[in-house]
């Protein structure tokens, strides 16, 4: 049983569909980015379920074998928006907001990825009732995805791990933090919240950061300054990360990397069929951190002309890779 003793009934009330529109002008609905998208709303619904003290938000749609999507930082379920309609033709898609992030409410006791994986398990198995599914995870969501696959391998039919070198014996957290300035900054205690302390600061931080790790950005030796996201896409991420508790939760994902290193080193290796997708030029550095723990990597590929934001920068390639891999 995830997170402690008790039956599935202990996870509280039935799933609820999101109310829309928001009840007050100061409370923006979780469907703010999709409420005017008629095609999307025909296929997908926003839902909530209580997992202990966290009210978890997810978006569900489609039909067929279950496919679960886990986002990274600083994003939410919305990072999958471009590929969800195509995936929903083959799968019942569940795009989650991780505990404490996006439109999930409440905070788990820790943001180490082992703990977050247990909350995701509480949602998927105990609340939704999924016994078997394909799992796709990006960025720090990949830390959760690995821990989920390690802890509950019998549930995961296939695992797609996207652009996340795994902290552990092959990659100490201290070394991981040297890969980009934002990793070291986000890991500091209290300072990030003090410097990024209002919605304007959040927008300035995110809009400055997004192009740096996009294709041609400074993280890849380029000079790109144009964001890979539209204004509307950025608005959605600014909306969620402007909530102080979500902003803090995002920073906690980095502050917990030392525990992630220890947990991953201790985690059992798994033989789950795995697809590894990375940014252009990143495969050689990512794969060695994973292969001792994910021992059945069937395919490893760089997404063409894509930086870190794989599902947005080259949605067609990512969609094709996932569909092809999960049909086997």
Plain-language structure description:
There is one protein chain. The protein has a domain of 223 residues: Rossmann fold, CATH 3.40.50.1820. 47% of the residues are buried. Strands 1-2-3-5-4-6-7-8-9 form a nine-stranded mixed sheet, sandwiched between helices. It has 14 helices and nine strands. The N terminus is likely disordered. It is of the alpha/beta class and 328 residues long.
Quick take:
One of its GO terms (molecular function) is hydrolase activity. InterPro entries: AB_hydrolase_1, AB_hydrolase_fold, Epox_hydrolase-like. The protein has helices spanning about 40-45, 85, 115-130, 140-150, 175, 180-185, 190-195, 200-210, 230-240, 245-255, 255-265, 285, 310-315, 315-325, and strands spanning about 15, 45-50, 55-60, 65-70, 90-95, 135-140, 155-160, 275-280, 295-300.
Mean pLDDT: 92
What is the helix fraction of residues, given as a range?
Answer: 25-40%
The top-level CATH class of the domain at 8-170 and 267-326 is Alpha Beta
- Total of DSSP H or I helical runs spanning 4+ residues: 14
Beta-strand proportion? 15-25%
Largest sheet: 9 strands, mixed
The gyration radius over C-alpha positions equals: 18 Å
Unreliable sequence segments:
1-14, 19-27
**Structural class of the helix and strand makeup?**
alpha/beta
The CATH superfamily of the domain at 8-170 and 267-326 is Alpha/Beta hydrolase fold, catalytic domain
Cα separation of the termini: 30 Å
**Secondary-structure element order, N to C:** EHEEEHEHEHEHHHHHHHEHEHH
What's the overall geometry? globular
The CATH topology name of the domain at 8-170 and 267-326 reads Rossmann fold
With strands numbered from the N-terminus, the spatial order across the biggest sheet is 1-2-3-5-4-6-7-8-9
Number of strands: 9
């Amino acid at each position: 049983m995830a997170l402690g003793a008790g039956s599935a009934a202990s996870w509280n009330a039935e799933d609820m569909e999101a109310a829309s529109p928001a009840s007050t002008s100061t409370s923006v609905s979780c469907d703010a980015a999709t409420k005017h998208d008629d095609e999307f709303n025909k296929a997908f619904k926003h839902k909530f379920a209580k997992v202990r003290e966290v009210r978890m938000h997810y978006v569900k749609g489609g039909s067929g074998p279950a496919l679960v999507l886990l986002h990274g930082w600083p994003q939410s379920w919305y990072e999958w928006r471009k590929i969800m309609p195509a995936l929903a033709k083959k799968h019942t898609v569940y795009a989650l907001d991780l505990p404490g992030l996006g439109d999930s409410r409440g905070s788990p006791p820790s943001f180490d990825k082992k703990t977050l994986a247990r909350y995701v398990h509480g949602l998927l198995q105990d609340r939704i009732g999924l016994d078997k599914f394909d799992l796709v995870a990006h960025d720090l969501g990949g830390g959760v995805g690995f821990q989920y696959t390690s802890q509950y391998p019998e549930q995961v039919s296939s695992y797609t791990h996207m652009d996340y070198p795994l902290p552990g014996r092959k990659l100490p957290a201290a070394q991981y933090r040297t890969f980009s300035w934002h990793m070291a900054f986000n890991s500091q205690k209290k300072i990030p919240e003090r410097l990024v302390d209002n919605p304007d600061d959040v927008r300035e931080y995110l809009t400055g950061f997004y192009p740096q790790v996009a294709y041609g950005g400074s993280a890849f030796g380029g000079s790109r300054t144009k964001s890979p996201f539209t204004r509307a896409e950025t608005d959605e991420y600014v909306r969620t990360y402007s909530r102080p508790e979500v902003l803090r939760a995002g920073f906690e994902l980095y502050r917990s990397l030392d525990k992630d290193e220890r947990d991953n080193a201790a985690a059992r290796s798994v033989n789950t069929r795995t697809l590894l997708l990375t940014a252009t030029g990143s495969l050689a550095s990512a794969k060695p951190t994973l292969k001792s723990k994910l021992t059945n990597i069937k395919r490893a590929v760089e997404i063409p002309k894509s930086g870190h934001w794989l599902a947005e920068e080259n949605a067609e390639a990512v969609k094709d890779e996932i569909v092809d891999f999960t049909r086997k």
